[in-house]
Write a structure and sequence with these properties.
27% of the residues lie in helices and 23% in strands. The protein has a five-stranded antiparallel sheet, with helices on one face. The protein has a five-stranded antiparallel sheet with strand order 9-8-10-16-11. A two-stranded antiparallel ribbon has the order 5-6. Helix 5 runs antiparallel to helix 7. With 359 residues, the protein is an alpha+beta fold. A hairpin with a 4-residue loop joins strand 1 and strand 2.
Length: 359
């Protein structure tokens, strides 16, 4: 079972949803980089459970404990390892599910491959994204030091769409949010699904500003490939689209192409950005835009058909326990974390390649 990703930067996640801890090891971060523990904790708090009636009732502090790689808030050049304790665990809620796979979950495929269904999904659980956010939160700070920002927002929840635009952060709004009225409509849709014993999914939009032209490479080294691999580490993700995405299939070349022009500073830019800031797997210097589809939370209170894998008999399953009626709001920082890791890894790889060629 591999939970490692990255090229120059290597991220390994470990632990279980209902184990004593979850954690991460991040290798490849240069020494001498100052980090803000307060900013990292604020980022982790955005993903943490139990903070809203729209999320699970499971409440975890999600305070990371660093075992190596940091000294006085400065990176040492060693592998950075941190753990988060699981304190609000109720494994008894999952006893009835030890041989009955929940529809929409990885329970069945995990049973086929590993011979067991772990409480709460084990390594397949969205709980693992807390460890991803430690690594991503570190990368976000390092990107900000390089003048690169990662912004994201909820584009839709179920049938409710937000037509606003991503804007830069401000002091009173530390991360982009949806329009207030549309946000209320989204919240109401989530509460209605919850009351019905059901759940909702949605779409998250992400924009990366400040990435210089020339980062990435062709074929499997492309930025789309790197970003997609990292984003699909978030369990609920079912799709990703860059720039115009699938809508580009309905356009002509004359409509989809982004004309090159010179801006007021004499720099090459594009008039439009249908490509999402990436051509041939390499950044164009324009903002990198992509959207992520998040599926409805599979654990719902409504009756569902399943099979007892030991008795090989059909059963009707009703999932109890504590679950998000919609994972989208808490997945927003996870998308930012995955994007920040992928971009910082690509930049370090590009720097290493340039230094090698210069020698």
């Amino acid at each position: 079972m591999s939970s490692t990703i990255g090229d120059t930067l290597r991220l390994t996640l470990f632990g279980r949803s209902h184990g004593p801890v979850i954690g991460m090891t991040l290798a490849g971060i240069p020494a001498g980089k100052a980090l803000s523990p307060a900013a990292l904790q604020a980022f982790l708090d955005r993903r943490a459970p139990g903070r809203s009636p729209l999320s699970t009732a499971r409440r975890e502090a999600d305070i990371p404990r660093f075992l190596s790689g940091l000294s006085g808030g400065v990176t040492t050049g060693e592998d950075i390892t941190a753990v988060i304790e699981n304190t609000d665990v109720r494994s008894a809620d999952y006893e009835i599910l030890s041989a009955v796979p929940r529809p929409g979950h990885a329970d069945y495929t995990a049973y086929v491959k590993y011979g067991r269904i772990e409480p709460g999904g084990g390594p397949f659980s969205g709980r693992m994204t807390a460890a991803l956010c430690i690594a991503g939160g570190i990368c976000l700070q390092l990107l900000e030091q390089a003048g690169i920002s990662v912004l994201s927002r909820i584009r839709s929840i179920g049938p409710v769409n937000d037509r606003g635009q991503l804007v830069s952060s401000t002091a009173d709004k530390p991360f982009p949010v949806v329009d207030e009225a549309q946000g209320e409509a989204m919240a109401q849709a989530i509460l209605e699904a919850k009351a019905a014993g059901d759940s909702l999914g949605g779409v998250i939009e992400c924009r990366i500003l400040g990435v210089p032209a020339g980062i990435g490479g062709p074929v499997f080294d492309g930025l789309e490939s790197r970003l997609s691999a990292a984003v699909f580490g978030i369990p609920a993700v079912k799709g990703i689209a860059f720039g115009s995405g699938f809508a580009s299939a309905r356009l002509r070349g004359s409509e989809n192409n982004d004309p090159f022009v010179l801006d007021d500073n004499g720099e090459i830019v594009t008039e439009t950005n249908h490509c999402g800031g990436i051509l041939g797997g390499i950044s164009t210097g324009m903002c990198i835009d992509f959207r992520v589809a998040i599926k409805p939370t599979p654990s719902i209170a409504l009756p569902q058909r399943s099979v007892d894998l030991k008795k090989m008999q059909p059963v009707t399953l009703q999932v109890s326990g504590r679950h998000d009626p919609c994972i989208v709001p808490r997945a927003v920082p996870c998308v930012e974390a995955a994007a920040a890791f992928a971009i910082y890894d690509a930049m370090l790889s590009d720097r290493k390649e340039t230094e090698h060629e210069s020698h």
